Amino acid sequence: MTFYIDKYNIFNSINNVYEDEIALGVSYLNLGLYVDSLEQFSCILEINSNNMIALRYEETIQFLNKGLEINPQNKTILTLRAGAYFYLDQYNNAIRDLNKSLEKEHNNATALFLRGQIYYCLNHFHEAFLDFYDALKFEPDNTDMLVLRGEAYLSLEHYYNAFLDFEKALEILPENVFALFYSGKIYFEQEQYGRVLSYSSEALKIEPGFVPILILRGSAYYCLKKYKEALEDFSKALKVEPNNEAVLKYVKDAYNGFNFTSMKNT
């Protein structure tokens, strides 16, 4: 059985940015006070370097363009605009801005991390790994970076190193759902289904409707010929994503296995 997972990125936490500070920065831009707005946006990043501005991205780019007219080499505004480009899937534009930003500040962990994510989305896993590796030099306990570097290791089939990154992330943040998922996935490849059940069950306590983990645990149950439990997990996943053809196939396979086992036991 195979699995899938939605594109993961640090900006999933975007709604945690301080809205009042963002609104103030936008107000400065609307008033033409571009220097003040740049200072405000820089302040937001200093408060939490893992967050980006939660604005509508097209408007964000327009605002940031005005700032760059005044200060074309401002590394903060270049990184912010790259984040907006990233959300719009304009990867080449994002990489261009990040390259400029990193020319000015090579140890900018946020820019390195974002560029690594873009490389990952483009399936340039080696380049992604290098950026995540460099970013972690500056923020070694950043769990998001650890998970994404672990993903890059997985894509390069460096399973042991991937597992080490996921385990370190879990030491720092035991409820990290993605680290739990990928650790379980590695154990699945090793056919250690008991460990898969342990990791995936822990993850589902935190995110009970997370489809990839439901599929992972259901697949482990299926391989253990526990078809009833597998059917329950796949059915839950199908309720969340009723149009997912892969999940529907899992449900049918588990249902057939469950019926066959039931017939043998009668």
From TrEMBL:
InterPro entries: TPR-like_helical_dom_sf, TPR_rpt, Ycf3. PROSITE patterns: TPR, TPR_REGION. TPR repeats lie at residues 109-142, 143-176, 177-210, 211-244. SMART domains: TPR. It holds the Pfam family TPR_16. Keywords: Repeat, TPR repeat. It comes from the Eukaryota. This is 24961_t:CDS:1. It comes from Dentiscutata erythropus. The lineage of its organism: Eukaryota, Fungi, Fungi incertae sedis, Mucoromycota, Glomeromycotina.
